[in-house]
Amino acid sequence: MTATAASVVCVVLLGPPGSGKGTQAKRLVGRHQGWVHVSTGDLFRAEISSGSGLGVSVKATIDAGNLVSDETTNEVFASQLDKILKSKPQTKVLLLDGYPRTRPQAQALVALTKRRPDLADIKIVEFVASEELLVERLSGRRINPKTGRIYHLVSNPPTVPGRCDDDGTELVQRADDKPETIRSRYRLYVKERDGIVKGLVEGGFESPVAIEAGLAPDLVEAKLETTIASILD
Description:
Number of domains: 1
CATH superfamily: P-loop containing nucleotide triphosphate hydrolases
Number of strands: 7
Structural class: alpha/beta
Order of helices and strands: EHEHHHEHEHEEHEH
Shape: globular
């Protein structure tokens, strides 16, 4: 499929947690008018903040420590998509970060594009990263629990070891950044990955374009930008 001037392209950013999907999406939307970063976490928060019945249901599920079902996740995506496109009518590209996460979600996304003429295409870009690379990258992160500022023990260390440069607060390691948690999340991604791709490809869309996540951030950004630009020409 080829995007038309009045249509929106959904770029599915596929890859394990910590592979750089969100970071790269944020870099690109800051430089391209009409490109919008769509994070699943942000969608849930927006639906909850809206006070809708769907949002109340999502909040109750999350507060109970349970995973939001595929069906509810698909409803939230469809609901928030309407709001995004109405509030940002000049949108050309939606960078989907964290959706779809399962084959049923991928199938729902395909069905949605077929129902909506304003959604022209789905492009899959896969950030390829090994388990060991992610453990090395994420386990070195430290955060200021007060401000949220993030450091890395190797690539971006604080001036004083263990202390934030801004206010001297002791830095901590988030539970999600502990090696055993990273490995668990990586394996969950691997388990779901083939089903996601199959769900999208069976819907008529092309196989993923692979980008090596271990490259320098500027190179990853350039490759992602080129890939997206190629379907907008």
